[in-house]
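@channel anyone free to eyeball this complex?
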Amino acid sequence: MLELRLVQGSLLKKLLEAIKDLVTDANFDCSATGFSLQAMDSSHVALVSLLLRSEAFEHYRCDRNISMGLNLSNMAKVLRCSGPDDIITLKADDGGDSLTFMFESPNQDKIADFEMKLMDIDSEHLGIPDTEYQAIVRMPSAEFARICKDLSGIGDTIAISVTKEGVKFSTRGDIGSANIVCRQNTSVDKPEDATIIEMEEPVTLTFALRYINSFTKATPLSNQVTLSLSSDLPVVVEYKIAEMGYIRFYLAPKIDE
Amino acid sequence: RGVQLSITEFYKST
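replying in thread with the prediction:
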């Protein structure tokens, strides 16, 4: 039997909002480690990997590893029925074909439950090796989202270039071109406002902007975003969820013809 | 502009 009680239920809501437009159907895996998902978008260009560690839950019971196939857009619809401060409990019976979502208001005066049918989803699981990246940029997530949105008004691709000068985001389109440079900035009042660049070697990679823009839907989950870049490798765009887990997006680069 | 690579070209199925 599975019973997971998440006091900060809004986390699950935000996670679904972050991935529902990228992935249609996916398996949520539950094990002693936590509640996780790995899935690719339909064109296999992007991959999302998320984890809510078991410690993130007030009560975490998962008797055996279980994989639950769900339509993410329907799951997002169900989660939208929860209040912003609701406690969310997920329940499933062993061998059952449904997942129950229970929403409790903070003062316990309203309790709702929604049952969703599980689906059989044939999904491919990819092994992602631990890699030393040539450059790692940590910056405010809202700033990154703003840059991606601004550039998407100009072009379809984003070149991310890290040098010792800083990180440069560039695009080019029919109306012209744009470059936005962010320099390392650690002299800020709040650590979440810092931009930190760790660079082993300069690196430039080009990506489809619409995917990067879609990843920024995870912005409400974290004040900071981390971009990990290496030549000829997918970029990793990571939003850490406090001490509780993460959501990582992997995006394959575009290369010159 | 450019050729879009696929994520499966980088990571192996487990």
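from a first look: Chain A touches chain B through 27 residues (CB under 8 Å).
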